[in-house]
């Protein structure tokens, strides 16, 4: 099945080299004659693993020492609630910059815990020039939240909102480690692992230390950043196998050029696919060029029956999970870090064939 390419939006494909290493070590990790899933999470070997994972992730993303890295559970949805419980404790309100389904969903959840003001930063599906300067109002809020990549619509925001000295929070679930960022611009970055970091079941939170320790008294301990930080993200038994796989992904990325090299590969993959879409009068991508996602490429034929036929035939040809999200329809090719350029080339070849047969 080496000719199968998985375009799933998440859980997404993982690097083959990582899966092969995990397969080799599955029954005998660290010469223990047992699996990493079966050892104590507080044992010496696993504690060494998490210490090295923290170090490797810091190196990959150039994370300063005044930030804590938490490996939590509950996915990004869990953080939708954890954020206001930990941060909205002074001014009693937060600003949410919405650009699609997930940023709007995060705002809806936050309203259960604090007052939320919501600003749609897209106009006719396009990010307007200068539309990300909130420095004159941001300090009225405990934090400002946005989602730089919307997986459903295939919209990515490449500029970082200007919030002055206010706290900026980013949901990077679908584009973390895909390109370089300056972590110092953010108070909190969070991401579900199941797209670029590892398998579903673990969530990374990068939080500036001065923001820890201010949670509301009613905040459950599992969502309390201070409690989790002091407990090495182990207030309860963590998802050890997922943590282990993330540690292998970090090492793999470091060995293959880091985030700089990965960003170059991602730009090349996306450019190839968008170039084909732009020259085709059979398929359409409806995202403004400046906001086209490098991770999730959406497209359609404009005909629901033809779209369904495309997905069915693509699946039979070994191109999996190309059906678009139910909110939007059409097709979606998720080309996260682990997708090789050969997968994009195979998709384009199929698209050409399908177009020729159905035009």
Automatic annotation (TrEMBL):
E.C. code: 2.6.1.52
Record-listed N6-(pyridoxal phosphate)lysine modification sites: 195
For the keyword Metal-binding, the answer is no
Cofactor binding, per record: Binds 1 pyridoxal phosphate per subunit.
Quote the subcellular location field of this record: Cytoplasm
Quaternary structure, per UniProt, is: Homodimer.
User: Per the similarity annotation, which family is this?
Assistant: Belongs to the class-V pyridoxal-phosphate-dependent aminotransferase family. SerC subfamily.
Tell me what this protein is called.
Phosphoserine aminotransferase
The source organism is Caviibacterium pharyngocola
Lineage runs: Bacteria, Pseudomonadati, Pseudomonadota, Gammaproteobacteria, Pasteurellales
